Amino acid sequence: MSDDIEDKKKLVIGLYGEMRLAMELHDLGWQVHRAYIDEGIDFVATKYYCPKCKAYANQWIRISNYKGKNKKCVTNLCDKCKQTKLTVISRYLQVKTSEGTPSEENNARDFSFHPKLRYDMGDEIFYIWIAIFDKPKEKLCHFYIFNTKDVALFDNLMLDTYQITDNQKTTLTINENGVVLNRGRMYDYECFNKRFYNDFSALELELK
């Protein structure tokens, strides 16, 4: 396969992964905004939060009478307590999608993940890694969600060459059930299975 075709295939896979992620986030109540210029952040996801109810909420739609007719009026108040102004909270997401390469393990593939933002960038900045398996009817997507500070759990930030070259890649062998099979000597890759796998609740910092 030529480099040009391979690059186009990677682009299509990346767009597919981002589309599936956007649908997942939307179903969980997030509004998803895509960056027009790639500066390391691919998505900004937002939700409304009520500081009084200490919960995510929607805007209260008040019904008012206007010229003898009931009209809907969208307010900036919480739809639960109907008296507190909502706060808009944001999460900044870098998204990486890969369909991997054949693995020696049965029903598994090798995935190379290479985040651009590797250091602790703050509580609101997350990676979402998407491992894709090609299936006859619909591609199978596995999502791994973690904060930038969690990279230290499985990657050696103390290397003198860290972030200077493009060679620091974490290769994960993942089976079709989304289980990471790596058994490292320095790091416990179980964090991908126990903490990161489909953990969209990690984005809900206000509820912790």
Structure description:
The structure is a single chain. With 208 residues, the chain is α+β, with helices and mostly antiparallel strands. 15% of the residues lie in helices and 36% in strands. The chain has 2 helices and 11 strands; from the N terminus they run H-E-E-E-E-E-E-E-E-E-E-E-H. The strands form 3 sheets. Strands 1, 2, 3, 6, 9 and 10 form a 6-stranded mixed sheet that branches. It is elongated. The model has no long low-confidence stretch (mean pLDDT 88).
Provide a short characterization of the protein structure:
The protein is an alpha+beta fold and about 210 residues long. The protein contains 2 helices and 11 strands.
Overall pLDDT score: 88
> In total, how many beta strands?
11
N-end to C-end Cα span: 48 Å
* Oligomerization category of the chains in this entry: single chain
Low-pLDDT residue spans: none
Q: Judging from the principal axes of the Cα atoms, what is the shape?
A: elongated
What characterizes the major β-sheet? Answer: 6 strands, mixed
Helix/strand class: alpha+beta
Tell me the series of helices and strands, N- to C-terminal: HEEEEEEEEEEEH
Radius of gyration: 21 Å
Strand content: 35-45%
| Secondary structure: helix percent | 10-25%
Number of distinct helices: 2
Q: How is this fold's topology laid out?
A:
Elements (H helix, E strand, L loop, with lengths): L2 H25 L3 E4 L8 E8 L4 E2 L2 E8 L2 E10 L8 E12 L2 E2 L5 E6 L11 E9 L6 E8 L22 E6 L15 H6 L12
Parallel strand pairs: 6-9
Antiparallel strand pairs: 1-2, 2-3, 2-6, 4-5, 7-8, 8-11, 9-10
